[in-house]
Amino acid sequence: MESSENCSVKVAVHVRPLIGDERIQGCKECVSVTPGKPQVQIGSHSFTFDHVYGSGGTASPAMFEECIAPLVDGLFQGYNATVLAYGQTGSGKTYTMGTGSKDCSQTGIVPQAMNALFSKIETLKHQTEFQLQVSFIEILKEEVRDLLDSVSLNKMDNVNGHSGNGKVSAPVRQPIQIRESSNGAITLAGTTEMSVRTLQEMAACLEQGSLSRATGSTNMNNQSSRSHAIFTITLEQMRKVHSVFPGNDSPDEDMSEEYFCAKLHLVDLAGSERAKRTGSDGVRLKEGIHINRGLLALGNVISALGDEKKRKEGVHVPYRDSKLTRLLQDSLGGNSKTVMIACISPADINAEETLNTLKYANRARNIQNKPVVNRGLESNEMQKMRQQLEYLQAELFSRGGAAPSDEVQVLRERIAFLEASNLDLSRELHVYRSRRAVVGQCEADLPDDYAPLTKNDGLKRGFQSIDSSDYEMGEIISGENPREVEVATKEREHEYMQNTLDKELNELNKRLEQKESEMRLFGGIDTETLKQHFGKKIVELEEEKRIVQKERDHLLAEVESLAANSDGQAHNKAHDSHTQKLKSLEAQILDLKKKQESQVQLVKEKQKSDDAAKRLQSEIQSIKSQKVQLQHKIKQEAEQFRQWKASREKELLQLKKEGRRNEYERHKLEALNQRQKMVLQRKTEEAAVATKRLKELLESRKSTVRDNAANSNGHTSVTQSNEKSLQRWLDHELEVSVKVHEVRFEYEKQTQVVLSMSPDSRKARRESVENMLSMSSNALIAMASQLSEAEERERSMIGRGRWNQLRSMGDAKNLLQYMFNTTAEARCQLWEKNLEIEDMEDKLNELVTLLQISETQRKELVREVRAKEQAAATALVKSDSKIWVVPCLQFPSAPKQLKFTPGVVNGTVKDSVAFANQTRKVNIFVSADGANGTTFDEEISNRCTSWETLEVEEKSSSVASAVQMEVAEAMETFRMD
Ligand SMILES: Nc1ncnc2c1ncn2[C@@H]1O[C@H](COP(=O)(O)OP(=O)(O)OP(=O)(O)O)[C@@H](O)[C@H]1O
Fold this sequence. Notes:
By secondary structure, the protein is of the alpha+beta class. Strands 2, 6, 7, 8, 9, 14, 17, 18 and 19 form a nine-stranded mixed beta sheet that branches. It has a three-stranded antiparallel beta sheet with strand order 3-4-5, with helices on one face. The protein starts with 6 loop residues before the first strand and ends with a helix. 63% of the residues lie in helices and 11% in strands. The model is unreliable at 156-171, 245-253, 442-480, 758-762, 875-910, 919-937 and 939-963 (pLDDT under 50). Residues 16-17, 19, 87, 89-95, 221, 223-225, 270-271, 343 line the site of adenosine-5'-triphosphate.
């Protein structure tokens, strides 16, 4: 492809006249054009464009000649072109383009472009072969559709609401994919490309597509285009090119072919619209939203490209925000010559939209495109070769006057230079190879302290002991670990390696560049052509020599015949002149012979230089392959390092995780220890008390036994006091028994604690528990001694020992009675406790049942509340009403603070109605999901693209009070609920 200079997007404004409806409404013209200047005024604003047509500007028919014809001419030179009609709905885009079904007359740009194209083809057809293709697509609701797809055209659908109201029709078509080719060109996969030969065929395609295009009736245009349409003409040319050679006078022998392929996009955009003015609702409204969205994206692209500051800052151009901008990527800022026609209405009611259109158009003028000649690959090659040939021819011409010996000298010098450079190249190659070997050995040759770090096992070794202790973990986290050092070293090593390889690569690139530039010197000479040229020259010289020899022979014959026939002076005179002629001929022949020889020599020298060039070429090839290898190695090394780093980071992450886990565990253990310590302390204290009590009991038992013995020895016992003392004794015995049991229990627990403190326990825990242990071990010792004493006694009491004190049957009976009463009392208490437990269980069950019931009730209530909310919303948002007064706070998904334009209340229904009464405006609150079949997001986007749909201005107070009543009812329902 040939590069071309940047060229800015050309902008023409087309002001249509006031149309019927506008006249009926009594509209006035608010747009004026400065006579003789491409300047438009609207109010206090003034804009200058490339051209202005209509309403006092240049007459509309001139538009084609001035704006479009140059683009059509450019097509034949291989330049892509785009014509873009932009403007508000009803501003005359379709009319200007001539893509409306009934407007496919000769007035529109598209039909005129087609005419111009075919008439130019007619004049050029003798030297150029042409092929034409057309495609026609539309972007409807962010879907690309093929308007020439005859199969799907038959399947008319109602899906988009383009039928049924008798106004609109749109066929079902397969979605088409937008693709970007390797050279950055945007293409459409799956579109119909109709091959056309005649103007009629092309016009038929335009008409067919125009008829299939989605249109609909709105308040502003009864045949409004509901989609963006792109009619594309692809012109392929195979042109015969005449190559000029010196000494070659027959042009037919050097004809070659050149291939060009250029596209002309004719774009009729759907018009920007405000739903309030178009009166759109339902499907039309949705279409309008999509149209505005696409145009908004276009506007963003235009501002990104049109703002010089943004362009310099390299601001991202949001081509991908919509299909429209994606498809127009080449036309805006890319490989295309583009003309934008801003269509405007002069009517004062459209002033705002007109001003917006003019602002956009003004910005578009700053867009810089980079159109290039689109040749085929082969043609590009041919172009290069042609340039080479021209160079060669120039060289040959420049040498034409030089003596053959000079030519030989020049060639010799070149050969010498080539040989010298060849030698240099070989030397460099050798150096490079040896360096590469050094780099290859880099790993192996690394210093000793590098070596273990490059090996994986070193790494593993580094990680092996990681879980062995908390201490090590702490080190890792604090970053003081040798592993950190290892990573740093590895990174340094990687950096070093990359730098070395990069340096190598740079050097290699430099060499390659140098060699390629040398090679270009050879490349400038077309060997074949030179050979042919010299061959031809040799033949010519031989021919000349032959002629001269013939002349010489003829002269010799003449001289001989003169010698035989003539006499005297005349003979001598004639003989002299002939001899002179002969001599000069001989000299000529000699000269020709020399020339011939030098030409042969030249051919040989050329052969040598060709060989040198070949050698150079092979050297370049080998450097290239080495470069590829080196690049591969760099990539591999980088990949290996990346993998190593990733695994290292993963391991580190795991270690950190483990560290955190251990830390947590440590805290947990500390807390547990603390708790245990406290429990142990309490238990130890309790055990000490129990032990003390046991000791006391045992002491008192001894004294009791002594008393009883004394009593029995003196025979002075009184029956009653004996009875009491027996009972006391039994109580005492029982208490001793229970205490022994208690101490035993405590003792066992303490032992368990001590056992649980195994020697393997972690250091920290062991230290903290050691103190506890020393505390409890003292208690344990005391307990153990008391226990052994008590149990020893208990053992001696088993059997008869315990009852030695019973001296009579009466004693035994009394004691039994006492025991019976105590047991009965204990059982009664037990029964009462059981009763209490049963009671509590019943209560618990009751509570559980109650809980279940209340959960079910809660769920039902939630369901009811939701249903009522829904009902309230439906009551408020009537499907046929455009006034939606819905308090957004009632809906959980609605944000609490919706941003509205100033003066609009955002709050409760009450607020909104109060505001409505006060301002005589009905304020629209965006409802939440589900209201009127729209989602919250959709509502927001509706509101953003066209505010007017959601705001009903200057409604009478009766409307407001009607709304108020509805709202009051709804609120009442809410309150009752
Ligand atoms: N230059 C003009 N002279 C006379 N009438 C025109 C001219 N331009 C447009 N009109 C009329 O204005 C009306 C709207 O034009 P048109 O359909 O081309 O608008 P549009 O911009 O394509 O609208 P939409 O974006 O809705 O498709 C049509 O009735 C058309 O005939």
